[in-house]
Task: inverse folding
């Protein structure tokens, strides 16, 4: 995997991005210095709780941050441009045409009083200056490719005549209309039922393969991550705390927060008491000194309250920001909780059995 | 299922909503012919997609709606009949509800003390000091502190608000709680805290819980027995292990095949099963009904399907 990544082309590169929001109480530090690369044809999942900064970072990529946001530092390099400095006019060219977005709630992403067909053709006619007839042909083609039955009939219907899953397919069709090379999915299945969710995930995987898209997939559901991701970034309090391939994150997690996230998920196979993470995420107006997770971390050491841990490299693809990986701490031999270890062993076995 | 082992018996419950008049009349059978029983101190999970009628079932049992048909027995007493003050008191004394949305379900203009103590006041308790004492007790029980009593709902996080909702439900010492998606609005880390809290309270107070949710892994973890609903019908009831290892109804199979697990190896090999009622069932000459296929395992099926399911069980054994 490691060698593979080096040869692959970087499509998008985020470096040390910091986003603040001006709020009544002060400056909210929503994103506090994140860096990651997106390779062509891969799915990068970003996981984290609400308020961890995952949505804010993708809004920064698309230039759709709220008015009270300030990009304090860092760069987002795409096609030789720094998206943090690009003018709104240029963004019109990028947004939709080169970077597509699928929102969480398909109902509020669609205009309720505009026919589905017009919503899909809108960007084709505006951006690609297509004629009405031509745009309709392309739109029908798109509707067919995202699995809408009877596209001719559906073309003239309104969003309320569609089910949640069908609406999300329309949103995907709109996102694909500009023929983007990067697709950003912001919790695209959170509002859907499991059976519908499975179909939408399959669809996203299929179009990703067909079009060789690079996908950034934001979610808080670790099951969905396991299904979709090639690589995973785990975010907490505005920082990436662990990054690695899906196998590394699920089978060899190194950060106590990743341990806690994995062990707090109800398991289909046991009824052992869940290891809940105590407390709540910190207030980002006053981010704590040192490691932001320290106060909720059973493995926190003295240094966690004083100094922020840097990213420690574990393999070429795997790194985590925790002092536990420092040579001095590693000597103490602190390992992941026994319950989680047993669970990972069980997962590996069941995977091997099926495979 | 006229069995006294059940604390709550739901027999052929129907909840139809109609709109319009005359030729335009439209009837939605939100809950249709649903039958199940819940034993004392057990957790019964009800799963299904949105719109399948699981929430309506819960709300009809606690009489937020008036049922269109069928009977509901609580400790042998019919609670689906005509509402009167006596029945209302019996209901509110015995069954309490926890709602899904911890923001919408708390009155923003009331303090936490008023919200939690309201149930006691309604029951005629007048001594302010006594109410206060019980509210503080409840707050401690759900992991909050005394100082929280004078605050308003907006000052709390989602997890804390759900704890307040739980405190409000258990202060009247009900025998049974109907929990309608109590954790689906919460983050994973907070979700685990609330599930643990509910588990502790269940042990401590001997509560019977009707747990309604769409997340099958949460339901499987939390419940002793599980009922699967589809389009207003209860299609399968079994204990959690059985349902997971040995699903019989095609919808249950489809549902199980769609749950994502946090395991990249199995996820990449996942084979999803589709459920198409028109293809999977032939009810043209046989009517389906709820049948006990093996002990403790009920499936909604026709006689020929029943024979097929029995074969399947024999083959697995």
Result:
């Amino acid at each position: 995997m490691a060698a593979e990544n080096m040869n692959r082309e970087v499509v998008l590169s985020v470096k040390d991005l910091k986003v603040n929001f001006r709020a009544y109480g002060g400056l909210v530090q929503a994103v506090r210095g994140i860096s990651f690369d997106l390779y062509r044809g891969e799915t990068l999942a970003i996981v984290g709780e609400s308020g961890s900064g995952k949505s804010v970072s993708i809004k920064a990529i698309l230039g759709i941050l709220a008015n009270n946001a300030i990009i304090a530092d860092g760069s987002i390099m795409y096609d030789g441009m720094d998206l943090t400095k690009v003018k709104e006019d240029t963004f019109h060219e990028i947004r939709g045409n080169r970077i597509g977005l699928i929102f969480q709630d398909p109902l509020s992403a669609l205009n309720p009083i505009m026919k589905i067909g017009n919503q899909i053709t809108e960007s084709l006619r505006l951006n690609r200056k297509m004629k009405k007839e031509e745009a309709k042909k392309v739109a029908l083609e798109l509707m067919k490719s995202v699995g809408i039955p009877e596209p001719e009939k559906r073309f003239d219907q309104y969003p309320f005549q569609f089910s949640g899953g069908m609406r999300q397919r329309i949103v995907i069709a709109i996102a694909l209309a500009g023929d983007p090379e990067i697709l950003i999915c912001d919790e695209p299945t959170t509002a859907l039922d499991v059976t519908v969710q499975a179909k939408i995930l399959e669809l996203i995987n299929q179009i990703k393969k067909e079009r060789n898209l690079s996908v950034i997939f934001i979610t808080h559901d670790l099951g969905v991550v396991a299904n979709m991701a090639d690589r995973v970034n785990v975010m907490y309090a505005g920082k990436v705390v662990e990054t690695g391939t899906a196998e590394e994150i699920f089978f060899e997690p190194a950060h106590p927060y990743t341990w806690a996230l994995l062990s707090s998920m109800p398991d289909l196979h046991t009824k052992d008491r869940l290891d809940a993470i105590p407390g709540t995420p910190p207030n980002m107006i006053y981010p704590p000194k040192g490691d932001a997770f320290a106060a909720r971390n059973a493995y926190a050491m003295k240094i966690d309250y004083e100094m922020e841990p840097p990213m420690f490299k574990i393999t070429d693809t795997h790194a985590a920001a925790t002092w536990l990986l420092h040579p001095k701490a590693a000597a103490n031999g602190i390992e992941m909780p026994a319950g989680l270890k047993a669970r990972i062993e069980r997962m590996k076995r069941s995977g091997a059995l099926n495979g | 299922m006229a069995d006294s082992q059940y604390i709550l018996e739901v027999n052929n419950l129907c909840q139809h909503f109609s709109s319009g008049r005359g030729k335009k009349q439209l009837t939605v059978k939100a809950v249709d012919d649903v039958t199940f029983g819940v034993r004392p101190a057990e957790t019964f999970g009800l799963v299904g997609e949105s719109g399948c009628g699981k929430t309506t079932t819960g709300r009809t049992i606690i009489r937020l709606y008036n049922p269109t048909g069928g009977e509901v027995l609580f400790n042998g007493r019919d609670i689906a009949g005509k509402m009167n003050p006596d029945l209302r008191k019996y209901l509110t004394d015995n069954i309490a509800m926890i709602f899904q949305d911890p923001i919408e379900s708390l009155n923003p203009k009331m303090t936490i003390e008023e919200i939690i103590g309201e149930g006691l006041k309604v029951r005629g308790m007048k001594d302010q000091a006594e109410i206060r004492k019980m509210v503080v007790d409840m707050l401690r029980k759900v992991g909050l502190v005394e100082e929280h009593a004078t605050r308003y709902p907006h000052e709390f996080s989602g997890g804390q608000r759900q704890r307040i909702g739980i405190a409000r439900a258990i202060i009247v010492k009900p025998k049974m709680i109907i929990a309608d998606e109590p954790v689906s609005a919460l983050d994973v880390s907070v979700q685990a805290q609330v599930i643990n809290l509910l588990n502790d309270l269940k042990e401590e107070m001997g509560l019977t819980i009707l747990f309604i949710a769409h997340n099958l892994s949460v339901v499987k973890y939390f419940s002793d027995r599980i009922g699967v609903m589809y389009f207003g019908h209860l299609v399968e009831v079994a204990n959690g292990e059985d349902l997971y290892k040995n699903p019989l109804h095609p919808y249950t199979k489809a549902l199980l095949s769609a749950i994502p697990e946090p395991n990249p190896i199995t996820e990449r090999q996942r084979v999803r099963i589709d459920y198409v009622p028109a293809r999977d069932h032939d009810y043209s000459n046989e009517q389906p009904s709820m049948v006990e296929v093996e002990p403790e395992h009920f499936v909604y099926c026709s006689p020929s399907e029943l024979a097929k399911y029995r074969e399947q069980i024999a083959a697995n054994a």
